[in-house]
Amino acid sequence: MDIAALIAWVVTAVGGFVMLGTWIAKGGTRDPGRTRFAPGLIFGHFAIAAAGLVLWIIYLVVGGATLAWIAFVLLVPVALLGFTMFARWVPGYRARTAPASGKEVAPEQHFPVVVVAGHGLVAVATVVLVLLAALGAGS
Q: Which pLDDT score, from 0 to 100, does residue 64 have?
């Protein structure tokens, strides 16, 4: 269970890196008026998720149920921030045609839909696997 959670977390992180890189490359940090995502939302989600992943790796090396539970607790705000971003992304995706005003589409509208969907689904699996591992399932 522990290793399955690690694999799911790493796969989720790869999808997150793809979207973060796309968002930055398409001007997410340069033109905040074009995006529905505040930099604090994006980078907060990334930082907490990365901290949790590092903690999970330490848990795998050192052991200790406390570390597993802390990693799980860190996933709660990560999931909430992720859901917030998804809820802000959906309306733009539905109206993804170029705006009539001639403005460019928001940076997050360049995210590949398959990456958004995959990231979200594997993220949910990650939360479940980390919870099960923290509860001691599969030990």
A: 87
